[in-house]
Amino acid sequence: MLGLGNTLSGGIVPAATATGFTNSYSLDCDGSNDYVTMGDIDVLDGQDTFTVSAWIKLDGLPEDGSRYVIVSKDNAYELYVRNYSGNIAIYLRLNNGSVNYSVVTLNADTWYHLVASHGASGIGGTNLYLNATVTGNSPRGTQITINNTSDPLIIGGRGSYFTNGLIDEVA
Q1: pLDDT tier, 144 (very low <50, low <70, confident <90, very high otherwise)
Q2: How far is the CA of 127 from the CAs of 18, 47, 92, 123, 137, in angstroms?
Q3: What is the pLDDT of residues 110-130, one digit of tens each?
Q4: Residues 58/164, Cβ–Cβ less than 8 Å
Q5: pLDDT score, position 63
Q6: From CA 61, how far away is CA 73, in angstroms rounded?
């Protein structure tokens, strides 16, 4: 709920319907300064098993060396899409250090469902999913416990990395 110490920067607009995705409103980020900060949401602090997911529809792909932050709680976890030397990949960064990623094929103006599941079902490490299909070799990394941090939960950006496109159904 906005107005309780939380801030909103950006806009919510009707989103085009995609196969398997029927919500009609999404966060519309412009890639330069739009994001939503939720304050210190601590539900995942100190956890060693969790899942983070979101629907995204990018206006374009990140430039080489850049990333689109989907959801972040800095110093704890961050789900983002990055272009590294021409390869587009889904990343989950844990505790501002350990990074798990998978190279994927994404196109602009197409809805995708991203999921990062860490330590679930005794697998250890992280599984990354694109449209309900596990990507690459999973699991990646080792199971770790997320830092307890007072950093805010942010959707759509962090620092100088902002998403250019629509974000919806962050969970």
Answers
A1: confident
A2: 24, 16, 9, 9, 8
A3: 999 999 988 865 666 788 999
A4: yes
A5: 95
A6: 23
